[in-house]
Amino acid sequence: MFDLILRNANLPDGREGFDIAIRDGRIAAVERGIKAEAGEVIDASGRLVSPPFCDPHFHMDATLSLGLPRMNVSGTLLEGIALWGELRPLLTKEALVERALRYCDLAVSQGLLFIRSHVDTSDPRLVTAEALLEVREKVAPYIDLQLVAFPQDGYFRAAEGEAALTRALDMGIEIVGGIPHFERTMEEGRRSVEALCRIAAERGLRVDMHCDETDDPLSRHIETLAAETIRFGLKGRVAGSHLTSMHSMDNYYVSKLIPLMAEAEIEVIANPLINIMLQGRHDTYPKRRGLTRVRELMAAGLNVSFGQDCTMDPWYSMGSADMLEVAHMGIHVGQLSGIEDKKRVYEAITVNSARAMGLEGYGLEVGCKADLVVLQAADVIEAVRLKPTRLVVLKGGKVVSRTPARISSLTLDGRPEVIDMGLDYLPPA
Which among 356, 383, 407 is the end of a domain? Predict the structure, then answer.
């Protein structure tokens, strides 16, 4: 007797017609034609069943604040930073918690159950840290929320940046962040990377730095981050987020940099939606795309994942908590249009992100946590193409969200009466 069985599921690795049995919040069997009873049976009907989506890079303290206290008229990164500086003194814990919980509701409906959020520690009040720590506890039954102490105005540049970050970590934020390219000088940026890696090593924590989020090819803090990762024994615990300057770097320099990053086992987190929107703003034509070198980094064996970064905040007025939208943009910006490319992009929002976040028990193997999503698509390539409805979302083997399938009814003479985009328009096998 199982608690729940998902029948006739297609799996991300291409296997079709499998049943997934769940008991006590864990996957108990993945087989064809399981002969057993269950408290609940869900027929996937030949649709994709996947581990849930993971967002390894987000700013939950700013989410859904669009229009407060005013709109970003230019839509640029610099005006967004200035606007956040205007909003930050007005933030209250209650408002931060309310917006974050609303976003988490949306995330669950989209099958997004794992989120790493950077938390601005530049305001010494640390109202952002207090709010997000409360949210982490509230959403724990349905979302695993990781928090990064992020000195958004610069670890050295902000008036009380060093002390505030230390206090945030003492409060229970579990990852050390940084933004070396936003310090006053390249040298201060280098020193911030060293100091923050030292803190992580002393406390036994992970590191996730906004690194070289600029079009400047001479912004090379990722080189320092990789070197300090090796120096402090942090291999496998350090992420470099954005890395957009790599898009503009000289190819010869990159041929040295990527092997160094691979040696340090740096986790690479790109943010396709925001990178394509905000980078290249000083260019006329041709305009740079801004996304880091995803294909080359993957080919070198680095773990590359994609983050959403922002949703309806001072930097990005769009977004919908949909990691498939992120993957869809990543395919276009990175020109990752091959069949294997698309599969790797799907991994960038699932298994790769889970690895970057250090998640345990994630996946579809027997014994993994029964965190699953049923999508209105036949396979991972179709999922990225269609950005389909998340029909059922499971957390710990329990249904936490259901959404009706998107089915269109037509009244056209001589044509089908019903269209299911997820199954009726499959490409040739």
Answer: 356
Contact 282, 245 (CB under 8 A): no
Does 429 reside within a domain?
A: no
**267 among known catalytic residues:** no
What is the tally of structural domains in the chain?
2
The reported pTM is 0.97
Q: Is 370 found in the same domain as 314? A: no
Give a yes or no: residue 35 inside a domain.
yes
Contacts for 183 with CB less than 8 Å, ≥ 6 apart? 154, 155, 156, 157, 189, 191, 192
Q: Which of 183, 213, 325, 382 is catalytic?
A: 213
State which residues form the domain around 22.
Answer: 2-51+363-424
Bond into 286 cis (ω within 30)? yes
pLDDT by residue for the chain (429 residues), tens digit each? 999 999 999 999 999 999 999 999 999 999 999 999 999 999 999 999 999 999 999 999 999 999 999 999 999 888 998 999 999 999 999 999 999 999 999 999 999 999 999 999 999 999 999 999 999 999 999 999 999 999 999 999 999 999 999 999 999 999 999 999 999 999 999 999 999 999 999 999 999 999 999 999 999 999 999 999 999 999 999 999 999 999 999 999 999 999 999 999 999 999 999 999 999 999 999 999 999 999 999 999 999 999 999 999 999 999 999 999 999 999 999 999 999 999 999 999 999 999 999 999 999 999 999 999 999 999 999 999 999 999 999 999 999 999 999 999 999 999 999 999 899 999 987
Q: How many CB atoms lie within 10 A of CB 337?
A: 10
Nearest one of 93, 141, 143, 86 to 119, comparing CA atoms: 93
Domain end position, chosen among 329, 356, 383: 356
